[in-house]
Design a protein that fits this description.
- The protein is mostly helical.
- The protein is about 70% helix and about 0% strand.
- It is built from 7 helices and no strands.
- Residues about 10-20 have low confidence and may be disordered.
Length: about 140
């Protein structure tokens, strides 16, 4: 039994504070106009498949607090996610053609190039880890 002076358990331990709206923060992520549909598809469709528990329990706040800032600040991770979005579009929407294949390969190459540059600089180790884990995890999901 809890008496009036004792604190109860905090069940909101993993509750993130709600930052800017999804649309406002997504608009800040710098991508070329031709890549905007891939980014939108990743955020609107792929994220909830990859992180279903976070989406249900955190009501999108993990997206605004963790994923979108990583996409904004980590070009390697961004290209990895855009490649995965293109793969997801191709497989779920039965999109065929050179453009979608080009998007997949262009962003896959950009991911590797950014990762090699980061490794050569030997800085931003957290960003290197995010991108590397993203490349492994997203290809498996």
């Amino acid at each position: 039994m809890f008496s009036g002076g004792e604190e109860g358990l905090n069940f909101n331990f993993f509750d993130f504070s709600h930052g800017p709206s999804h649309d406002a923060q997504q608009a800040v992520i710098q991508v070329e106009d031709s890549d905007r549909p891939l980014l939108d598809h990743f955020v609107d469709n792929v994220l909830r498949l990859i992180f279903p528990i976070l989406e249900v329990n955190q009501h999108g706040s993990a997206r605004t607090e963790v994923i979108l800032p990583a996409l904004e600040s980590n070009k390697c991770y961004l290209h990895c996610c855009l490649s995965i979005a293109a793969i997801h579009l191709k497989s779920t929407q039965s999109i065929r053609g050179e453009q979608i294949d080009s998007d997949i390969m262009r962003h896959r190459y950009a991911t590797i190039a950014e990762l090699c540059e980061a490794l050569n600089r030997d800085t931003d180790h957290l960003q290197i880890l995010e991108a590397t884990l993203g490349m492994i995890f997203f290809q498996c999901s």
